[in-house]
TrEMBL record:
This is Methionine aminopeptidase. It comes from Occallatibacter riparius. Belongs to the peptidase M24A family. Methionine aminopeptidase type 1 subfamily. Keywords: Aminopeptidase, Hydrolase, Metal-binding, Protease. The gene is map. GO terms for cellular component: cytosol. The keyword ATP-binding does not apply. It is an enzyme of class 3 (hydrolase). A divalent metal cation 2 binds at D107, H171, E204, E235. Substrate binds at H78, H178. Removes the N-terminal methionine from nascent proteins. The N-terminal methionine is often cleaved when the second residue in the primary sequence is small and uncharged (Met-Ala-, Cys, Gly, Pro, Ser, Thr, or Val). Requires deformylation of the N(alpha)-formylated initiator methionine before it can be hydrolyzed. CDD domains: MetAP1.
């Protein structure tokens, strides 16, 4: 596996791409409400990315048809925005966005509750998934391992009775959307590749309220929980520094 270490100048380009992603996610977060469609979010994101002088990373990637991935309730990842997908009170929607600046990528995701009536278990799923992301990021430092990240995520999730999706993982990122190494959200501390300054990875826990198994729908993209349980997804692009980590999509 060929891991590409980034220079400080390359990381700065990724930071700029990461800022675009964060601005777009905050814009569409504010639009999430009952009656909005996922296409409304898509159109706003498409416009804002262009205004910020960036290019959308997902549209056309392996044929994906949209700027955002919008995944509702039991949809885990890669949901396709549509005028037919109307958000309802009590739903949750995962919004994943990527942007390119000067040939370098940023990638992040949030999961947002719709309206005021989200049930307590689903609310806890969102909080725990976000906590697990930050636990994974806290494990990032030179000499730590990919297993340290996965173990940190997994321990937070499973302590709350939820499950980590195994079929999709985080990834290296840079001048390509997906680079080596793969970054699982599960594993054993101390195992796997050691982290080095200049590595940049996307850490992205995907957490199910029920069992970890997923399946892909007939559209060839949308992954859903096999048991129909709710799923949440949070993601940051993170650089390994000499002293620890730097979140590029904050």
């Amino acid at each position: 596996m060929a891991v590409v270490l980034k220079s400080s100048q390359e990381i700065e380009k990724m930071r700029r791409a990461g800022r675009v992603v964060r601005e777009v996610l905050e814009l569409v977060r504010g639009m999430v409400k009952p009656g909005a469609t996922t296409l409304d979010l898509e159109n706003a994101a498409d416009k804002r990315i262009a205004e910020l002088g960036a290019k959308a990373a997902f549209k056309g990637y392996h044929g994906f048809p949209a700027v955002l991935c919008t995944s509702i309730n039991s949809e885990v990842v890669h949901g396709i925005p549509s005028a037919k997908r109307v958000l309802k009170d009590g739903d949750i929607v995962s919004i994943d966005c990527g942007a390119i600046i000067d040939g370098y990528y940023g990638d992040a995701a949030i999961t947002v509750p719709v309206g005021e009536k989200i049930d307590p278990k689903t609310d806890r799923l969102l909080k725990v998934t976000e906590q697990s992301l930050h636990a994974g990021i806290a494990a990032v430092k030179p000499g730590a391992t990919l297993g340290d990240i996965g173990a940190a995520v997994q321990s937070v999730v499973e302590a709350e009775g939820f499950s980590v999706v195994r079929d999709f993982v985080g990834h290296g990122i840079g001048s390509k959307m997906h680079e080596d190494p793969q970054v699982p959200n599960f594993g054993e501390a101390g195992r796997g590749m050691k982290l080095r300054p200049g590595m940049v990875i996307a850490i992205e826990p995907m957490v199910n309220a029920g069992k970890p198994e997923v399946r892909v729908l007939r559209d060839g993209w949308t992954a859903v929980t096999d048991d129909g349980s709710m799923s949440a997804h949070f993601e940051h692009t993170v650089a390994v520094t000499d002293t620890g980590s730097r979140i590029l999509t904050d």
